[in-house]
């Protein structure tokens, strides 16, 4: 520890954050031996969120701090060494390929969870963000410079939302918090790079969550990977056409995978998208505990948006009996809304998601998307010139640099 720089205790407050996000002012209070507990205004978990005890009992997820399993880390190291056995000497991240080919072994490892200290490097490779970062024609520094205008519509909208994104987090709770300027730059950069999208509130929660674990530039390129590759192009557009389409696809999948729930929703005339649209728009960042989110995102960055459907179906299946036994529409709606916050075991969730919807493929999802997107556009009175128009809506996001 250098003078004036404090390091979190293992498993203690802020210990799971990327080091540059450690809030030194709060850590200083924790570190002062003479300080009483009262001098620390709030308690924080290892991710930097304020911890509120209710009736003296903490949720199960908060009782044990995030800890890496040494055996799990060894398995990951062994796999990386095996797949990069042409290298001589110690294996370092700069020797590992910018993208990793899919394999049964890698999928098994991802399903079991990526060791937390390896997540920044692995996420960048699994999502294709590292390749984007290295191949970009326009550097992040230039993007930040070009998007620094305070007077744009996007900049003004972003400014209003900065403190609304993660108000209970030490790094985003006030304008002086260390994460706020980073989030501002990332969101402005995205709005500049993708002028057809601009700024969407859903991106704020995703970007803020990424900034907890990745350096600013890496978080930016992860957002680019999500926008360009992992979800349809119109997900974050002002029309939200892509994410609306996915709600219709989800509804169709419920008919196929959870028919009892489909019948219940029809009988009570419940519009599920009022609840689940936000789950998809933020890739669950706004609705599940951060420990769960990490495991879901391990899969999301590896397999893409099919995971959003699998996890949602898994959650709904886990609560199917409780939903079926609900007495009225209000009870059903409330139970559905509360599902993500009540899931406490990532392994069970992932297992259930794979059990119920493991057969779901990208091709199946894409087929459904094209059909429901056409229906949605027709309903909204928008004109499609050709079949390629649908393809463009679901596949192509144009960058600023490509539109000059």
TrEMBL record:
<dbReference type="Pfam" id="PF00566">
    <property type="entry name" value="RabGAP-TBC"/>
</dbReference>
<protein>
    <submittedName>
        <fullName>Small G protein signaling modulator 3-like protein</fullName>
    </submittedName>
</protein>
<dbReference type="GO" id="GO:0005096">
    <property type="term" value="F:GTPase activator activity"/>
</dbReference>
<dbReference type="InterPro" id="IPR050302">
    <property type="entry name" value="Rab_GAP_TBC_domain"/>
</dbReference>
<dbReference type="InterPro" id="IPR035969">
    <property type="entry name" value="Rab-GAP_TBC_sf"/>
</dbReference>
<dbReference type="InterPro" id="IPR000195">
    <property type="entry name" value="Rab-GAP-TBC_dom"/>
</dbReference>
<dbReference type="GO" id="GO:0031267">
    <property type="term" value="F:small GTPase binding"/>
</dbReference>
<feature type="domain" description="Rab-GAP TBC">
    <location>
        <begin position="113"/>
        <end position="304"/>
    </location>
</feature>
